[in-house]
């Protein structure tokens, strides 16, 4: 192991690395790379936690796993794999949710350093609060396609994860993509995966129903099936849009009590004559017949490109007309099967181009920077732990990894890490229930786990199951909350407290959000003056404002 070679680290640093206990939260794309780096750097006391099991789609970028790992716990397999690099490391692996109450303050206090390799905003917020509570340094990280970042978080020294609002990530469950698409974007994502299966080197997801049988045994992959049948366009059309749909429908429980259910296309569509689509403007939505003709033509063209390629592998490109026609045609044909509105070539190209893949190289670069931050933290060189950004294109100095000039100080108005955090809640107290307040405001938007709420010394919400507080069905007004009331909210599990000042909100329109949250205000009128100039969020039920002085 290179890190153990004399001279790589000073003896004092080498011992510090070896003795420091580190928690790694997440064993996915970044987590696998970080774990490998930690072991090779000489870290000997590690714990990993991840709640996921390994899927086939993980194998192209999570290199600690292989085909035999599918279905097993990520954390356990990662531990087993990385011990081959250095069997002398002491690693404890957990299959579980870091937000579970058994991973509380006592658990976090064991560690010298915590590393986040998560893709979940709520879990990131929770780990952020636990590290602030225990005064433990945290390294936060993430990637998006070819970009990424590494952030250092330390109580009183740097920004915390929640000092400024984070954009809500848009993600789509794979089970929805495969089995119950509801929107055009679901069909577009499915089509891109299908392209990878048929023509790419590998696929992020197996969307063909023949990839795995109902009893879990391996069957012929879509690529092998297509090669075996000579990429015959009509055979592919029937397999993908008839045989695979029949396979879905054969799973009796899959669509039980569900509104979304696929419908088989009429047999006539699979034997239709070719119709013209070339002269239709990109802004016009094609008919199903035109989409089928487009599919048949583009399969033949893409087959020729595949045969001409050096490695028998194609990479999807939105600027290739045949590749784009494949996505347009398959998206709309699948939309017809699931009763989803068709989209034009122009609309589909716009949406397909914005789907960001996971890039193994980006994960590796970010993981390397994480370990550099870890070494600086152990050395006490916090001032050198500025946020580092991975750029898609080099900057004017030719750099891909670019760091902030200085370590940014905590936001004094942060509702999580400031000492006097208070926010303002605007809500209709006569219609908003205590249960909605707990679930929608405290847990969903403020990311609390087990909140206790006091109003004028009276408890209206308790995290203790033994407490006889059962006011969930009552409105806020019915439990004595009035315009101008103040809540004292404590989450003892996160060691996190906040004050919430409440103002009565009248919904002037049906589409108005049920509640609004404003940060660091003394008077609601300050927010009302600004509200009309702020764009509405995508979710019509909520509005959250952070530091309004900056808007």
How far apart are the first and last residues' alpha carbons, in Å? 52 Å
> CATH class of the largest domain, anyone?
Mainly Alpha
Strands side by side in the biggest sheet: 3-2-1-4-5-6-7-8
CATH architecture descriptor of the largest domain: Orthogonal Bundle
Q: Radius of gyration in whole Å, from Cα?
A: 27 Å
- Which oligomerization state do the chains in this entry correspond to? single chain
Number of strands: 15
- Low-confidence spans: 211-217, 521-551
Proportion in helices: 25-40%
Overall mean pLDDT: 84
The H/E string reads: HEHEHEHEHEEHHHHHHHHEEEHEEEEEHE
User: Roughly what fraction of the amino acids lie in strands?
Assistant: 5-15%
Would you tell me which CATH topology of the largest domain applies? Answer: Arc Repressor Mutant, subunit A
């Amino acid at each position: 192991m290179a890190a153990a070679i004399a001279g790589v680290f000073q003896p004092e640093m080498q011992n510090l690395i070896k003795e420091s206990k580190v928690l790694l939260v997440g064993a996915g794309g970044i987590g696998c790379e970080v774990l490998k780096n930690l072991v090779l750097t000489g870290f000997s006391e590690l714990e990993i936690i991840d709640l996921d099991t390994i899927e086939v789609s993980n194998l192209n970028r999570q290199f600690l796993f292989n085909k035999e790992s599918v279905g097993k716990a990520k954390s356990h397999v990662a531990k087993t794999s990385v011990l081959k690099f250095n069997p002398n490391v002491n690693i404890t692996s957990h299959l579980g949710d870091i937000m579970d109450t058994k991973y509380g303050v006592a658990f976090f206090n064991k560690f010298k350093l915590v590393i986040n390799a998560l893709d979940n905003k709520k879990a990131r917020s929770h780990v952020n609060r636990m590290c602030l509570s225990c005064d433990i340094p945290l390294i936060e990280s993430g990637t998006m396609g070819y970009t990424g970042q590494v952030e250092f978080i330390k109580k009183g020294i740097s920004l915390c994860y929640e000092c400024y609002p984070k954009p809500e990530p848009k993600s789509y469950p794979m089970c929805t993509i495969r089995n119950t698409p509801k929107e055009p974007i679901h069909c577009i994502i499915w089509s891109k995966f299908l392209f990878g299966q048929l023509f790419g080197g590998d696929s992020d997801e197996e969307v063909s129903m023949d990839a795995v049988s109902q009893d879990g045994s391996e069957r012929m992959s879509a690529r092998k099936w297509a090669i075996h049948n000579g990429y015959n366009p009509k055979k592919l059309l029937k397999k993908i849009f008839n045989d695979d749909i029949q396979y879905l429908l054969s799973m009796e429980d899959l669509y039980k009590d569900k509104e979304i259910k696929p419908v088989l296309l009429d047999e006539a569509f699979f034997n239709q004559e070719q119709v013209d689509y070339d002269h239709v403007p990109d802004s016009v939505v094609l008919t199903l017949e035109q989409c089928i003709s487009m599919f048949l033509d583009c399969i033949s063209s893409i087959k020729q490109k595949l045969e001409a390629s050096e490695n028998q592998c194609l990479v999807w490109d939105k600027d290739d007309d045949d590749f784009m026609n494949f996505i347009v045609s398959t998206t709309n044909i699948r939309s017809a099967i699931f009763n989803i509105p068709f989209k034009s070539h122009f609309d589909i190209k716009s949406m397909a181009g914005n789907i960001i893949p996971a890039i193994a190289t980006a994960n590796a670069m970010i993981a390397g920077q994480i370990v550099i931050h870890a070494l600086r933290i152990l050395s006490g060189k916090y001032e050198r732990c500025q946020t580092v950004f991975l750029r898609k294109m080099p900057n004017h100095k030719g750099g891909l990894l670019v760091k902030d000039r200085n370590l940014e100080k905590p936001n004094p108005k942060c509702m999580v890490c400031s000492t006097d955090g208070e926010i303002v809640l605007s809500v209709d107290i006569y219609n908003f229930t205590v249960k909605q307040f707990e679930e929608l405001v405290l847990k969903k938007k403020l990311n609390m786990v087990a909140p206790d709420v006091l109003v004028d010394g009276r408890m209206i919400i308790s995290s203790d199951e033994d407490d006889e507080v059962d006011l969930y069905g009552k409105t806020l007004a019915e439990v004595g909350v009035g315009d101008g009331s103040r809540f004292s909210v404590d989450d003892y599990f996160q060691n996190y407290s906040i004050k919430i000042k409440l103002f009565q909100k009248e919904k002037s329109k049906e589409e108005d959000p049920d509640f609004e949250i404003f940060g660091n205000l003394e008077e609601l009128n300050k927010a009302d003056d600004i509200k009309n100039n702020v764009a509405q969020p995508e979710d019509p039920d909520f509005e959250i404002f952070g530091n309004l002085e900056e808007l």
